[in-house]
Amino acid sequence: MKSPIGRFISYLFLVIVSFISVFPFYWMFVLSTRSNADAFKFPPILTPGNQFFTNLQTAWERSDFLTATVNTLIITGTVTVSQLFFCSLAAFALARLTFKGRKFLLLFIIITLTLPGIGQIPLYMIISKLNWINDLRAVIVPALVSAFGVFLIKQYIDASVHPELIESAKVDGARNFQTYYKIVLPIIKPGLATLAIITFMGTWNAFIWESIVLRDESVRTIQLAIRNLQGTYTRETAIVVTGAFVATLPLLAIFIPFSRQFIAGLAEGSVKG
Length: 273
Hints:
Blueprint: H1 4-32, H2 52-62, H3 65-96, H4 102-114, H5 120-129, H6 137-140, H7 147-160, H8 163-171, H9 176-187, H10 189-204, H11 208-213, H12 222-227, H13 237-255, H14 259-272
Helix pairs in contact: 1-13, 2-13, 3-7, 3-10, 4-7, 7-10, 10-14
């Protein structure tokens, strides 16, 4: 057992780390409740003010946050659900099925993880030929499946789903999709939760590709709406931070309820992997 001093040091360390982790969100909230002049005061003001709804109204009038939020929810929800299905299905095939070219496909997926984003130019040419510029499909379709998601779930299946289970299912007459649906999916739920949170947060915060193909205000995402809040000649930090704070709330609403599954997925993968 740890000594009282050791426990005190451990708790003190956890408190400090927790404070460092939470403080940026608190500071974002404080700035969103203050005027633009207060954002540049030194020493900084650490207590909330009464300007939040004023800043929110200004942000709402300057950039259509409702449309941007709906667009982002459509993109994020579709991409997340699609990746959970296609990545887990492909990972199951690569991890537990035997077919010609399996090793080559796995090697190809690993190689794509090491490449930078050099595919945006040919991808843009394809999207342009399809007349998908200023269309949500330009963002959704290329992200329906990801090499990272396939590799992550494949590693999780390797660690969690024993080959004997698959063989037993085959002996009982189960088809491959039945085995995937009834045996594999219930076992890899923590891994799917991990992929869901990573995909949701990454898609919600995506900016570069969206700024290239989504130019009209009617198809803007939340990150493009935040960029539009910045003044042309002045730095309106309070308004921009208010928009960023509002955009962060859905991420917290998703992460907090599923944080246990997320941590369980990471912990189980690290122990078994």
